[in-house]
Write a structure and sequence with these properties.
Elements: E1 9-13, H1 18-29, E2 33-38, H2 41-53, E3 58-62, H3 68-82, E4 87-90, H4 100-127, E5 133-137, H5 152-173, E6 178-184, H6 193-200, H7 202-210, H8 220-231, E7 242-245
Parallel strand pairs: 1-2, 1-4, 2-3, 4-5, 5-6, 6-7
Helix pairs in contact: 1-8, 3-4, 4-5, 6-7
The structure holds NADP nicotinamide-adenine-dinucleotide phosphate.
NADP nicotinamide-adenine-dinucleotide phosphate binds near residues 18, 20, 64 and 66.
Amino acid sequence: MDLQLSGKRALVTGGSRGIGKAIIDLLLAEGAVVSFCARGSSGVEEASNAWSRQGYTVYGAAIDAMDESALNQWVDDSAERMGGIDIVISNVSTRISSRGLQRWQDAYEVDFLQHVRLAERSMPTLQSSTAGSLVFVATIASVMANILPVEREYGTMKAALISYASQLAHRLAEHGVRSNMVSPGPIDFPGGFWDWVKNENPELFKRAAMLPALGRHGTPEEVARAVVFLASPAASYITGANLRVEGGALKQTNY
Ligand SMILES: NC(=O)c1ccc[n+]([C@@H]2O[C@H](COP(=O)([O-])OP(=O)(O)OC[C@H]3O[C@@H](n4cnc5c(N)ncnc54)[C@H](OP(=O)(O)O)[C@@H]3O)[C@@H](O)[C@H]2O)c1
């Protein structure tokens, strides 16, 4: 299947490792041009250089997506460099360490408002594309009532994000822009959250692996394939979808 991504211009937040990096790997392999960000300059540089060596066109920037003015500037600069934006993949989440009500405030900023800022800033340039598309990386924690205590605020804010992204699908349809979501289950990769759990709390890691019907954690590549398909013109009649990539972790019929 041709995803029709050749020459498409994509923006990806959080692309130096994990799910974001796997998304960029695929976008580039399918012929897209990518602008991505992450906070750590060494991670950005290392990933950019590796892709450039393979002959891909990729622009990396070391910015904190939580910094509103830096994020806005990065969106504008990316649109200028690439001559527009066709695809926005809002992937960043940041583990927070605050407690109590401050934790709710921080989760609101990280897992909700930051995504809204990115989408709103990108909207004018997305609307001038002939294949405008947004994909938000959510989580199955958004629909779980019984989740890890450390994920309560995260799950709640990602649920709000799913509501926002669904509304966007309707708001932007008349401008030819689609909005979809992907909700991963537990995804393991070196340097990621579950890799840390594997070392710190092997029992919890094992329990999480038993949650999916498939009996294991997923990989970033398995999530990336769903994200890139939904982002691509090959998914031209899909908007407002929330695709769960969770190996059957949620014991519900997905009507
Ligand atoms: N991993 C899972 O099991 C899982 C499950 C469900 C949903 N998800 C969702 O999938 C998405 C990606 O998760 P992941 O596990 O791949 O992420 P991750 O390992 O936490 O980080 C991925 C990337 O985001 C960058 N990043 C983090 N905070 C940033 C910030 N404030 N500004 C700019 N870049 C930032 C990181 O680089 P720097 O640290 O250098 O900034 C890295 O490149 C998130 O939305 C997450 O909620 C993940």
